[in-house]
Design brief:
The chain has two helices and no strands. The protein is an all-alpha fold. It has a domain at 54-93.
Length: 93
């Protein structure tokens, strides 16, 4: 009797089914930066506002939008911290 080792077994390939999103795409667009992430978010929003959105595509787009929002929030938080550190080093008038 053979058992299916499953998608997490090293040395096997995972064949995504119709409802499987495929490979993990949680990596933020670090190389392309905040502006590119924001532009992608705007593109996704435009697609979601259409009346003919495919439900399978909708789920993937919402997931990607959540990833991009997290990325943008992190970038804004880091920028805020850096600005506060620079301002703290300025001499008082």
């Amino acid at each position: 009797m053979t058992t299916d080792p499953g998608p997490h077994d090293p040395g096997t390939t995972h064949d995504p089914g119709p409802h499987d999103p495929g490979p993990d795409t949680t990596e933020a667009p670090a190389a392309s930066g905040y502006a590119a992430a924001l532009a992608e978010l705007e593109e996704i929003l435009g697609q979601l506002e259409r009346t003919d959105v495919d439900v399978d595509v909708l789920a993937a787009q919402v997931q990607r939008a959540a990833q991009l929002i997290t990325f943008c929030r992190d970038r804004i938080g880091n920028a805020r911290l850096q600005i506060e550190q620079v301002v703290a080093t300025l001499p008082d008038d």
